Amino acid sequence: MELVQEDRYRFRIVPEGDMRVPGVVFATRDLLADAEKSLTQVADVATLPGIVTASYAMPDIHWGYGFPIGGVAATAIDEGGVVSPGGVGFDISCGVRLLAADCARAEVAPMLEKIMDVLDRSVPRGAGPGGVWRLTGPRQLERLLRGGSRHAVEEGHGEERDLARCEDGGAVPDADADQVGPRARERGLGQVGSLGSANHFMEVQRVAEVYDRHTAEVFGIAEDQVCVMIHCGSRGLGHQICTDHVRAMDKVMARHGIRVPDRQLACTPVDSPEGRAYLGAMAAAANYARANRQLLSDVARRAFARVAGRRLSLVYDVSHNLAKIETHQVDGRPRRLCVHRKGATRAFPPGHPDLPEDLREVGQPVLIPGTMGTASYVLAGVAGGGAFFSTCHGAGRRMSRHEAARKISSRELRNRLERDGIAARPLSWRGLTEEAPEAYKDVGEVVAASEGAGLCRIVARLVPLGVVKG
Ligand code: 5GP
Ligand code: MN
Ligand code: MN
């Protein structure tokens, strides 16, 4: 594979073999150390029918199922462009939500341990079933799959204003519950309002530094303010939908005349029965993930109100595993595209009509978790943003879970977090080592590269005070 450095933050994979477009990788040489396997995935994605402009990779790229995590690919719907479940990932609409408390750190510092204890007890998590909401039955699940956060708010779990600060107003249109199979429903029923495991978390943070005061003010955050960041997705329901639809597409790909270099890239045209079925089910899972984050916000709000008498306002909620039908300029004309973002965050620029009025002047908030021991970031979309207005989604893994668990001692990690004043409430300390800061790339380098590549700009840095981990 020929990787050509075009400028400081941009590399190009020269098309060869069946590649229809080049690969474009936004990163630095350092961030690409050990990225060989994931760069092959960027090249593989470039072979997909209907792909336009380039197969993109963000600075937090690492290996994923079929597509790399940190990958963006758009296909032209009117040219037989495909949709691929692997381009969304198993945790459909996994994403991040940030809430801002109406106080500075000093005001909650004496109550922090208590807040963390309440969250520890009240946030359902782990791999199995359990959730804050026991649904009345399959009918309510269907309402939730259509209504997302909106349904949760209508049922009393949040405020109307929350919806204005959610991507898509809290619910993706065109969810088709009929395309969600029985096993997926069964798994979904018992997990509404739960964190899941491993990389998912609820973290109490402090705004350590603001780089753009005006934008931060519009977003609703200020230096030293306390925030709560929630990272979770669509649990077993999303996972099962991905499994089911990959299998369905794998069976009919040949009939559609599609050949892919890796079976994990299973896909069919957006405009095919299987493509439409997947997108309908995917939208349902996306709504499940949003309702999930809405319900967990309710848990955080109750803990803050009860222990500290404080309120939490939603800054934004955005997913980083999703395919969306969007219109973008390609070769000077507007095209309807299916934009896959997998481990990549939509970053709409200032003035974008889909942004709520109060955010339109400054651009979309982009929420980037880093690690439980270092930092996380708030970014904003920029005019002319590359990769169909997308940017990174996190620090990105450097070590596999297995490698991290082998190399890092849970006792040492526990001591280190304690020393740094981070109140950790893990489900298990052993499991926590898989998520240790050194298992991830340097999030500061990742966001600097994202900004340097013209994908976004940095608004604020947040540091952890306490973390509830799955
Ligand atoms: P993913 O969606 O790929 O599973 O994870 C997104 C990002 O979350 C990771 O790349 C990592 O940077 C970040 N992350 C994982 N665990 C934690 C945590 O406990 N706290 C924070 N702030 N970030 C985390
Ligand atoms: Mn996830
Ligand atoms: Mn995620």
From TrEMBL:
The UniProt subunit note reads as follows: Monomer.
Q: Pfam families, per this entry?
A: RtcB (PF01139)
Q: What is this protein called?
A: tRNA-splicing ligase RtcB
Cofactor(s) needed for function: Mn(2+)
Task: Output compositional bias ranges, type Basic and acidic residues.
Answer: 148-168
Q: Which reaction does it catalyse?
A: a 3'-end 3'-phospho-ribonucleotide-RNA + a 5'-end dephospho-ribonucleoside-RNA + GTP = a ribonucleotidyl-ribonucleotide-RNA + GMP + diphosphate
Q: Tell me the Gene3D superfamilies matching this sequence.
A: tRNA-splicing ligase RtcB
Q: What is its EC number?
A: 6.5.1.-
State whether keyword Isomerase applies.
no
**Which UniProt keywords are given for this protein, alphabetically ordered?**
GTP-binding, Ligase, Manganese, Metal-binding, Nucleotide-binding, RNA repair
Domain of life from the UniProt record: Bacteria
Q: Per the annotation, how and in what number is the cofactor bound?
A: Binds 2 manganese ions per subunit.
Q: SUPFAM superfamilies of this UniProt entry?
A: Hypothetical protein PH1602
**Which parts of the sequence are annotated with region: Disordered?**
148-182
| Similarity comment | Belongs to the RtcB family.
The record lists the lineage as: Bacteria, Bacillati, Actinomycetota, Actinomycetes, Kitasatosporales
